[in-house]
């Protein structure tokens, strides 16, 4: 069974920084891409940033230049460094991973973390 465990959320003032972490554990054979989504009250879940196993990244326009996604493949962990935070960044942030498990022959599947709250005060 695969688990994605997030940490690092919290309350911060506008202009501040937070770093989110997400570690994937379980019988993991390989991970394709990992990333972060967020959902604010009344809104749909949206992509924030994503990184492939090769290190290619893509970001939502609203966070470009402020957020940086990175990963440690050896630790099956993805990070999101969030700088210059704005009140509109307030949301529940979800870790996402597309991976395959053992045994050999299993297909890639999508997994989600439980979410971590990020609140930015003005």
Keywords, separated by commas or semicolons:
122 residues; mainly beta; seven-stranded mixed beta sheet; four-stranded antiparallel beta sheet; 0% helix; elongated
Q: SSE order, as H and E?
A: EEEEEEEEEEE
Q: What would the principal axes of the Cα set say about the shape?
A: elongated
Report the portion of residues in β strands.
Answer: over 45%
Mean pLDDT: 96
Give the quaternary arrangement of the chains. Answer: single chain
Query: What is the radius of gyration?
Result: 14 Å
Class from helix and strand fractions:
mainly beta
The tally of strands reads 11
Structure report:
The chain has 122 residues and is mainly beta. The chain is 0% helix and 58% strand. Strands 2, 4, 5, 6, 9, 10 and 11 form a seven-stranded mixed beta sheet that branches. Strands 1-3-8-7 form a four-stranded antiparallel beta sheet, with no helix packed on it. The protein is elongated and about 50 Å long. The model has no long low-confidence stretch (mean pLDDT 96).
């Amino acid at each position: 069974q695969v688990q994605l465990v997030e940490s690092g959320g919290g309350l911060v003032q506008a202009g501040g920084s937070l770093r989110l972490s997400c570690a994937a554990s379980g019988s993991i054979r390989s991970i394709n891409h990992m990333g972060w989504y967020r959902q604010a009250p009344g809104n749909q879940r949206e992509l924030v940033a994503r990184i492939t196993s090769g290190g290619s990244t893509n970001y939502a326009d609203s966070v470009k230049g402020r957020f940086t996604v990175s990963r440690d493949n050896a630790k099956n962990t993805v990070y999101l460094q969030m700088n210059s935070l704005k009140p509109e960044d307030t949301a529940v942030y979800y870790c996402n991973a597309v991976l395959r498990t053992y045994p050999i022959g299993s297909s890639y599947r999508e997994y989600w973390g439980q979410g971590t709250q990020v609140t930015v005060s003005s």
